[in-house]
Every structure is written in C-alpha cells, then in structure tokens.
Amino acid sequence: MITLSLLHPIKQIPVQLWTFENESVIRIGRSTDNHVILYSAVVSRHHVELRRVGATWEVVNLGTNGTYVEGKRVSQAQVTDGSIIRLARSGPNIKIRLGAEGLRENEEAMRLDKTLSQPRSNVPPTSTEVNERSNVGLADGDIIDTSVRDTAARDTAIRDIAARDTAIRSQADTEFPVERSHTEPNSGIIPVPPHLQLQQQSASPTPPVAAPAADLIHPQPQASDGSTLQSCPHLRGGGLFCVDCGYPLRVLDTLGGYQLLNVLGQSDVGITYQAWRDGQTVALKTLNAEWLTNPQALATLEHEADTLRDLDHSQIPELLGFQVVGEKPSLLMQMMPGKSLRSYVTEQGAVSVERAIAWVFEVCQILTYLHEFTPPVAHRDLRPKNLIYNPDTDTLALVDFGAVKRVILERPFPPGSKGYGAPERLQLHPLQAMDIFSLGPLFAFLVTGHNPLAYYAGEDDQFRFQPTMIPHIPSEVVPILHRLTEPSLEDRYDSVDTVIRDLQAVLVAV
C-alpha cells in the first residue's frame, strides 16, 4: 500500500489523501486521466510518475517545471517512506507513506487539524494564550477533491484556482504596472523585472491606512482591568511616559487591556503598535478593519504566532501571547529596544565598510539559526527597516516575520522593499536563498545610504544588482556581493555558512 498526501503549504500537514494498493505506476498531473489530479498552473498535464520497482518506489519527472525530491531537482530518483516530492519549484508538496500505518497517521493528522479548526468560542483567550487553532485549510482551495459531484461548482472552483495561480505568478506585473514599450525584442533594451518596478501613481490612489486619532490625552493611570490607580497631573511631562508616575502620557486606543501608544509600522493589511499594560511595553500587531473578517488574514497572523513560538533566540522577538478581543485578533511580541538600521543610517549617515561587513555577518548568524529548521524559516523581507540596532548592547535584532501573508493574500510588498527582495520571494514555499539575496542590497544601503535600486542595471540580457556600481568598496567584496545577488538560484550562495566563511576572509583582507 502507498499513500500520497497533499501537504498544507504553511502547516505541512495532510489536507488530501490518495491510497493505492495494487497499482505499479501512479501518474500525477493536471490532466483528468491521471491517478492524482492537481489543478495548479505550475503543474504539467502529466507531471510525474511513481513507479514500483520490486519492493521500492521511484519517481520519474515528466513535467517541464521539474520535480524536486527533498528539495533537489531530479529526473529520476528512489523514494522511501516519508519522502516529500514537490511539483515545480513553487508547486504543491506530496508526501509519500508506505504501508497501512502511514495511512492511519495521515488520517489522524487530518482529523486532529479539523478538530482544532472549529469556530472559536465566545470566550476570548487570555493575553498570554497562543491559539493553536487555525481557520484556514488549503489556500484558496488549490486542490479540488475529484469526488465532488456538483460539476458546476467544481468547474467554478477550478476557474478560481487558475485565476489565483496566474495572479501569483504575475503578481508584480499587475500590482506594479509600467507602460510597455513598442520596441522590438531585439532592440537591445533590457526590461526591468516586475519585482523591481516601482508602483506608478494612479488617478485615484488608495488612501493610506489611518491610525486611530490620539483622542485620549493625559489619561489617568489605569490597571489592566480598567480601574483608576491614582491621580497624577503629569506636570513634568516626558516622552511617551510620565517622568513622575511612569504611566503613558498619550494613548491612541486600547485593545484587550493594552494601551496603544505609538504606531511602529503599518501596511494595507495590518498595523503594529507600541503598547503598554501594567508596566510592560510590548509590540502589538493586529489587522486593519477591512481584513478582520478574512479567514486567511487571520490564519496568517496565527501562522506568524506559530513561527515565533518555535523560535528561541536573543535577537528575535519573543512571542508573549495571541489574543482575540471581540472580532479583533492581536499578536503580542517582545519590544526590541533601539532603532532600525534605516533610521540609523538616515540620521547618522553611511557606515564604514568594516562596520557594514560586521553587521551583515551578524545578520548571517541570525539567519543560520532560522535556516536550520525543517523546513527552513525564511524571513522574506530582510531590509534595514526590519533590523533593529541596540547601541547599549551593540547588537542587531530581526523583527517582522509576517511577510508570508503578502504571498498568501496576494498583496504587494511595500515600495520600501524594492531592490532588497529576491526574484523568487513571491513563491509560497520558503527558501534560504530568499534571505541570502537580500544581504547584498543591505550592504549597499549601509555603505552608501542610498536605495539599492540605484545599483541595478542590465547585464547579459538581464536586469540585476551590480556591485561594481557601488563607490569606494574593496575589490574583495565585489565577487561576494555579485554571488549573493545572482538571479539564478543555481549560481547564488546555497547556504549562509558559505557566506560567513567568505566574509571572514574579507574581514582579514580589509
């Protein structure tokens, strides 16, 4: 018996099963004559075959986008109990289990997930409780159960999936439109890739998300239950807190007993506040009003909580809790002291090459920790804004692990990330190479103070990062930056350990 399970793209648990007892060949693809039918734009009509060879099985690639076994592209390879094959670089994952025990384990995992995914009770969890429940199954129903009898409903679902897959693959084109030139293909002009194009202003731009007005000025000190503790006139003022009583001077809003003091960052999907309760300052992230009823948006926030819960590193925010107050969820995280590298360089100016290398080296050490997980934890949005420098300890912290929500919700990355992101970061499945790419543009910003887009240009019929354009950097650094930012995954550094080794050699040279 062989059981194939389609894995959830985030939780990596089975969402659909196929069991075969007597077949010697099992074909997977989009065509309806396959044993396993997967409706995905990156999957070929006949994508892969599983063939029984004696007591073992082997996988044979048939698709144009390739088949990957345990992350490596193969044309033919032996698979064993527990092997995972991926159809195309950004396609669905299929786990292989041999024997009846594998079927029972998969069915139990699906049953448990359905139990945990039941609607929430009306009693909100405490502020320190992390919800392990999720309201999301497979994103947008990537795979259609072929047992569905309602043909019209099934056809509609298939059309929706095709539209979604097309949108994911061409997301940057539709969200960052540019006027197409009528120049012939052989004119010698190298087009700017979609993920590097800046968004044009539309005739009716979407207004930015507004933070709540600061309508609570000089509030009376309160306990977490809302009761007033004491009366303080706050005569000597202060920054965010009164220098006499230590309580907040201005409050934007309250949520779940937390007083929201300051906006740390916001996007079209969510907003992060500096929040305070009972003497503790935290970072509180929640969804904007228009996303509160979107189950996928809620699931991405819970996924970020799950990610942080598994991490234990002094330079990564600690998860403090996940609460739902009414219909509004919020993620509570450790507040990392200091200021972002973007603010630091803007205020202090560009740093020395030695300092930039030391900071990139420090970021590499954080990434080494993240990439050791299976599958690796990819940050996806590594840029100066998300690196916090603490001058008291002379260390960096990496914040904001919610970038994957932009891929799932099909939302554009913010303009400030242009130039830092790898070409493949719109793929759903995490890759170490996504973060490795960003180290090159990060270095360019640190030593120049300029947006790294200034150092992109055409080369060999492609538009890419050009480290030779960065002024006044040692020649020893150029090949490292060039390899960090190779558009092709095959030519880029394959691990952070190799980057660290080369950086150590450069530190000695400079």
Features:
six-stranded antiparallel beta sheet, 3 domains, alpha+beta, 510 residues, globular
List the helices and strands and how they pair.
Elements: E1 2-7, E2 14-20, E3 25-29, E4 36-37, E5 48-53, E6 56-61, E7 67-69, E8 72-74, E9 76-79, E10 84-87, E11 93-98, H1 100-116, H2 151-169, H3 171-175, E12 216-217, E13 250-251, E14 253-255, E15 258-266, E16 270-277, E17 280-287, H4 295-309, E18 319-325, E19 328-334, E20 339-340, H5 341-348, H6 353-371, E21 387-390, E22 395-398, H7 404-408, H8 432-448, E23 456-459, E24 462-465, H9 478-484, H10 496-509
Parallel strand pairs: 3-4
Antiparallel strand pairs: 1-2, 1-11, 3-5, 5-6, 6-9, 7-8, 7-10, 10-11, 12-13, 14-15, 15-16, 16-17, 17-19, 18-19, 20-21, 21-22, 23-24
Helix pairs in contact: 6-8, 6-10, 8-9
